[in-house]
Amino acid sequence: MADDLLTLTIREVGAQGDGIADGPDGLVYIPYAAAGDVLKARITERQKSGAFAEIAEMITPSPARMAPPCQHFTKCGGCQLQFMSGEDYRAWVKNRVASAMGHHGFDPGVVRDPVITPPASRRRVALKARRTVQGVVLGFNERQSHTIVDLKACPVTRAELTILFEPLRHLLGNLLPQGMHAVLHLTLTASGVDLVIEATKELSLADREALVSFADTYDLAAVHWQDGGFLDPVAIRREPVMQLGAARVALPPAAFIQASDEGEAALVAAVKEGVAGAKRVADLFCGIGTFSFPLAESAQVLAVEGAKGALDALSAAATQATGLKQIVTRHRDLYRRPITGAELKGFDAVVFDPPRAGAKEQAAALVASDIPVIVGVSCNPNTFARDARLLVDGGYSLTSVLPVDQFLWSSHVEIVATFRKG
């Protein structure tokens, strides 16, 4: 009904990508609304933080709007900001980080202009699939839903992966019983596509033959089938490897890597800039060595990681790589047992790159060290700002914050920041 609609003007786009307007009873959050839009909105939910609404009618579109490049936009939950023009989007990414830093008392001026990765650059995706009566639906979930959007295209993903979407539908149509769900991890490695399929089904001989044939037909590097805790290497045609600096690292199935080549290059360059001149560097939460190997071109590196598979891959690659300084690995849960200042005696710099939860315990331990330079990498501006506050309150100066956007048109953004003692 018309009486249920509010006429609103969007004043800004918030941290989660929703347009924010001032309503009669407080803030109203509206997905896919741009700053400057004048629209009619229908309230869908009320919470203490404000009301949530949907666009019912666009009265006057914002000049900042552009036509979204994807036919699935507003249905697929993968992207929230495809309506934003290039300069407005760049400004939003910078402000996303500056706002998070500001909430913890930092001057927004410390945030540099962001690095924005181009379309069609995502080299790893996790797709959802379900066998239905009509066939297999394959894609990403709708926003705040378990409903799968059947993707026909994806403008943020590498063509080497999107070209497999339709063949995978046909493959799964023969493998999955009706109603069964699956998750497909596709990773473009230096040796080809690595495919891991998660589904609660024991493979038959015919299933295995179909998977091997698929790998041969589409020249995949490897195919694994994961049923619960059992990982089955169905077809290993070539070992999936990542080129990290001078090292070729064997990639454990579905292991974490940076989302794009361009994003990884920007992060590595910023980390190396931050620790320039260091002769001994500790790389904490090192993963498979995204930073360890480039750092080892000029410094001895202590690589510390809690995931044993990732650390084993790094260690094996370090023994084969040539032209690098020494890399020493240490298996350790840095949440339960952070590296202490005493253990870092003699090191010139520390790099830390934790998961989204941040590194609160490790940051607190670093405060007690004499490390001259710390470079923090993060995929969560909010937990990063919290950890940065700990370091600065403990005697470090925050000298640089670089946003790196490798999840194009989404609310996710990476950060590289440099802290100096004193």
Automatic annotation (TrEMBL):
<dbReference type="GO" id="GO:0070041">
    <property type="term" value="F:rRNA (uridine-C5-)-methyltransferase activity"/>
</dbReference>
<dbReference type="InterPro" id="IPR030390">
    <property type="entry name" value="MeTrfase_TrmA_AS"/>
</dbReference>
<keyword id="KW-0808">Transferase</keyword>
<dbReference type="InterPro" id="IPR029063">
    <property type="entry name" value="SAM-dependent_MTases_sf"/>
</dbReference>
<keyword id="KW-0489">Methyltransferase</keyword>
<dbReference type="InterPro" id="IPR002792">
    <property type="entry name" value="TRAM_dom"/>
</dbReference>
<comment type="similarity">
    <text>Belongs to the class I-like SAM-binding methyltransferase superfamily. RNA M5U methyltransferase family.</text>
</comment>
<dbReference type="InterPro" id="IPR012340">
    <property type="entry name" value="NA-bd_OB-fold"/>
</dbReference>
<dbReference type="InterPro" id="IPR010280">
    <property type="entry name" value="U5_MeTrfase_fam"/>
</dbReference>
<dbReference type="GO" id="GO:0051536">
    <property type="term" value="F:iron-sulfur cluster binding"/>
</dbReference>
<feature type="binding site">
    <location>
        <position position="305"/>
    </location>
    <ligand>
        <name>S-adenosyl-L-methionine</name>
    </ligand>
</feature>
<feature type="binding site">
    <location>
        <position position="353"/>
    </location>
    <ligand>
        <name>S-adenosyl-L-methionine</name>
    </ligand>
</feature>
<feature type="domain" description="TRAM">
    <location>
        <begin position="1"/>
        <end position="57"/>
    </location>
</feature>
<keyword id="KW-0949">S-adenosyl-L-methionine</keyword>
<dbReference type="Pfam" id="PF05958">
    <property type="entry name" value="tRNA_U5-meth_tr"/>
</dbReference>
<keyword id="KW-0479">Metal-binding</keyword>
<keyword id="KW-0411">Iron-sulfur</keyword>
<keyword id="KW-0004">4Fe-4S</keyword>
<feature type="binding site">
    <location>
        <position position="285"/>
    </location>
    <ligand>
        <name>S-adenosyl-L-methionine</name>
    </ligand>
</feature>
<feature type="binding site">
    <location>
        <position position="258"/>
    </location>
    <ligand>
        <name>S-adenosyl-L-methionine</name>
    </ligand>
</feature>
<dbReference type="GO" id="GO:0070475">
    <property type="term" value="P:rRNA base methylation"/>
</dbReference>
<feature type="active site" description="Nucleophile">
    <location>
        <position position="379"/>
    </location>
</feature>
<keyword id="KW-0408">Iron</keyword>
<protein>
    <submittedName>
        <fullName>23S rRNA (Uracil(1939)-C(5))-methyltransferase RlmD</fullName>
        <ecNumber>2.1.1.190</ecNumber>
    </submittedName>
</protein>
<feature type="active site">
    <location>
        <position position="379"/>
    </location>
</feature>
